[in-house]
Amino acid sequence: MRNFHRVLLLILTLVGTTAFAQTFTAGGGSIPDAGPEVAFPINVAGLSPTTLTSAFGLETVCINITHTYVGDLTIRLKAPDGTITDLALNIGGGGHNYTNTCFNQGAATNIGTGSAPFTGSYSPMSSLGDINNGQPGDGTWYLLVQDVGAADTGSLVDVSLTFGPHPAVPYHVDSSDLPLVIINTHGSIIVDEPKVLVQMGIIDNGPGSMNHISDSFNNYNGWAGIEYRGSSSATFPQKSYGFETWDSATNTVDASLLGMPSEHDWILYAPYDDKTLMRNVMTYKLAREMGHYATRTRYCELILDGHYQGVYVLMEKIKRDGNRVDIKKLHTDDTAGDALTGGYIIKIDKTTGSFSGGWTSAYLPDTSNGTQTIFFQYEYPKAADIQPQQMNYIHAFVDSFEKALDSVSYHDTNYGYRHYIDIPSFLDYFIINEVSRNIDGLRLSTFMYKNRNSEGGKLIAGPEWDFNLAWWNVNYCDGSADTGWSYNFGHVCTDDYYQVPFWWRKMLQDTTFANQLKCRWSELRTSILSNDYLFHYIDSSGHFLDSAQARHFTRWPILGVYTWPNPSPLATSYDGELTNMKNWIAARMLWLDANMPGTCYPDTTLSVGTEMAVNSDLHIYPNPSHGLLNMDIGTSADEQVNISVYSPDGRVVYTAERDLKHGANHLQADLRGRFSTGVYLVKVRGKSMSVSQQIVLVAD
Q1: What class has domain 617-697?
Q2: Pairing state of beta strands 22-30 and 118-122?
Q3: Are 159 and 142 in contact (CB under 8 A)?
Q4: What is the pLDDT of residues 125-162, one digit of tens each?
Q5: Which pLDDT value is given to residue 605?
Q6: Which DSSP string do the residues of 94-119 spell out, in sequence order?
Q7: Is the CB of residue 159 less than 8 Å from the CB of residue 61?
Q8: Is 147 helix (H, G, I), strand (E, B) or coil?
Q9: What kind and span of H or E run contains 432?
Q10: Checking DSSP bridges between strand 358-360 and strand 220-229, what pairing results, if any?
């Protein structure tokens, strides 16, 4: 009898458990070829329990799709409260069909590592656990399917949702050695635009300290207006965001976030397709060390509505500001005289996203088939604010530059193209795009700006932007090759609409420009573009991110998984990703060293800023020194400068960034006990200056 009761109890337990499993199935329909996203409804009613939690919730999503090229499909699930989970995004290449394909968070195989036809159980590209967030399960769910490519046919046969006592549970993080950004939407749905009001807090207890989600918000505690951002990256499971710091009435409020200068326009960049997590951060740092403004960055980790979202980069948005692109503000009544001549920010970019008007160049790219043109967009002032006289001025100025560059006497130092552009910035812009083999370089996300004529008045290349597909992270148009030139993109990808302006090919025909390029390249190769310097930066950044990357790739298990447009071979570890990038850099440098045009003569050296207004001097004392350097420096403008110390063999052995104020400044650099006796060179570079002084370091 005792055994009978035990068996009965076991049966009742099993029946009680399985009784909770409830499945809801819906039919489908046609998937339009290269069409809009289709929302296929699944009606869920009578769930018990009614609330989705970690004790009861969504367990599995199963689909049947017939399709001739599944790599063109994006497949997502939308819950009644608007939460969207990415199941499979553009994977499987030219394979066919999803046949009895089930997505379960506990499946051993990630869908990204599978191959079509997909059959069986897979873990999805995003977390099903985000759906089990306390929302009511009853309601209308949607399977969102889109065919983003042409010449394919297919349809959704059916879809089913299974709810039960073994639901997907989100990955939870309580603490981090990086700052924590915590956002609460209070039920608002974040969309591409417009921005929605959310609460935001930032916890940063300082270097070497842990940050806990239970800590008080000590860096920022307030409101923000947030939206999705990105073009190709908008399809990734990990989303990038643009946000402004607001008050509760949605007015912008300037704030200093994580030590960066106060402003209200910010970006939370998601490095989903960059498995090193550092390509943009590294590029912007190099640009600043070259002496230019580039976006400041801070690594952080994001918690959105209680769900861990991985490693992010908090960064400044490119805009006119005294601490960003430092040019004069253009008012609506600045329509004549010197005030009309600046400042402007323009860009060459896709016309999707935050398109703000512009004009088409009169000069076709070298490889144009007749339909490919170069389009300049107004970045500042925006199209809604820029006045007709201002539109005409910047249009005419750029047109005059292009006309001069296209002329027979283009190299004339008085009447040629040099009259219009800041040569040092164009040299460095070319170098940083070529050294990184940036697939988008010089043709997309390409910014330029111009100050008033009384402030220099020439067109300056930069700031650098969007290098996530650089440094060996793209598998099309020879982007992963360690040979060849990015400015020759059109000779490789002739059909791509977005081509490179003829500028770079023509400037390289100017012997003086080529010689200056060679000198600048040689200078940088002995400093911040040396292999040792780059590899040290990559290794130290990898060490800094070591614990955070482990959390990130637990949330997004894509190491060893192809993510558009990663090149092969795919590394299966984070260290392997860093090694792959370093190996490519070493090969790229060898090719550039052998192929960089021009000849460097002593009188052709051109340092950053020599064509700008310069009113600065540098005095370092004591000299000789035991290593504690006092530096008195005067400057004509508030700006950020980079201090570099070069060893006798030309290596950069010390670097730091400092903010200078207009007038006299006193700085210190402590080199004591770090270097051997010898003659060293100290360089201070900023946007409007480049000064240097030799010093002698002696032992204590």
Answers
A1: mainly beta
A2: unpaired
A3: no
A4: 988 999 999 999 999 999 999 998 888 889 999 999 99
A5: 45
A6: T---EEEEEEETT-SSBGGG--SSEE
A7: yes
A8: strand
A9: helix 423-435
A10: unpaired
